[in-house]
Amino acid sequence: MSKKTIAVLTSGGDAPGMNAAIRAVVRTGISFGMRVLGVHRGYNGLLNKDVQEMDLRSVSDIIHHGGTMLFTARSPEFNTPEGVKKAADHCRELGIDGVVVIGGDGSFRGARDLTGAGIPCIGVPGTIDNDIASSEYTIGFDTAMNTAVEMVDRLRDTTESHDRCSVVEVMGRRCGDLALQTGIAVGATSILVPEVPFDFQRDIIERMRFTQKTGKKHFIIVVAEGVGGVADLAKEIEKQTGIETRATVLGHVQRGGSPSLRDRVAGSAMGYYATKLLKDGKSNRVVVMQGGKITDFDITEALNMKRTFDKDLYDIAHVVSI
Ligand code: ADP
What we know:
The chain has 2 domains: 5-140 and 259-303, Rossmann fold (3-Layer(aba) Sandwich), CATH 3.40.50.450; 142-255, Rossmann fold. It has helices spanning 18-31, 43-47, 81-94, 105-116, 141-161, 177-186, 200-213, 230-241, 261-279, 299-303, 311-320; strands spanning 5-10, 35-39, 51-54, 98-103, 121-125, 165-170, 190-192, 219-224, 245-249, 285-290, 293-298. Strand 10 (285-290) and strand 11 (293-298) form a beta hairpin. It is elongated, with a radius of gyration of 22 Å. It is α/β, with parallel strands linked by helices. 42% of the residues lie in helices and 18% in strands. The strands form 2 sheets. The chain has a 7-stranded mixed β-sheet, sandwiched between helices. The protein has a 4-stranded parallel β-sheet with strand order 7-8-6-9, sandwiched between helices. The structure holds adenosine-5'-diphosphate (ADP).
């Protein structure tokens, strides 16, 4: 019987720790006697047959690097029935028996479609946003939080020196986890997230005035990307309070940097788990963290789950950051 061949790809937005997951898939696959192919630039690599043969040494010296050694992409062509069929045909031509897809929900929809076209796929959650409903943790989130905290700490130094207010946008289009955690860690006067509607007067101006009366002279407002509008918010805050206010968008710096311990370990463990699922003949599964333990769900089921926002922690922030 010929050796089982598996492929690994990273898709959608990159996240620190993806390299640890790739490394784990390659080394676990080889330890199971499998042949492992690395696919370049997400699903585009399957459409273009852009793959590389992986061995133990091809994943040396990557665990401490951010980004993804396999590159990543968004692939509009793959996101069509013809694209999925072409990718599945190419997998068969390349002898690929299963694919580990490291990415977010969009990439998992692709994995579900590719499984439907006859190629067993397993998803591994990699996104700095922590916006995957089925998993309480996604690879890259810890590093991104720590980067955001470091950046806002730097902003605070200058904000404090000038008695200013800083309105800072952090990543998270649909998910306020990064804003909430960062906001708590930097002592933000207000934290705005897409999950909780806010009232400009009550949640920003009144809180600033209250803390001002107790002696506070500088303010940090953390805003999730999904709420946005930081330039307008800054203008309005300055107009209503008379406090000089600056807007900062942290942007893509939050995606980069050497992965934290947590992301290296999560990537390693999840990559191992995904490869084991393929070895055991499983398909259309997504690897998740639940109650601090790694487990797996059916992809379709996982995609239909609803995210829950940690409202208790949000309420705690309100009390302690005043
Ligand atoms: P993420 O995986 O980070 O959520 P995207 O939403 O951009 O990122 O998705 C990454 C890629 O996954 C897309 O460019 C596309 O190739 C594929 N994809 C996304 N949605 C679907 C879908 N509904 N069906 C098939 N493929 C999809």
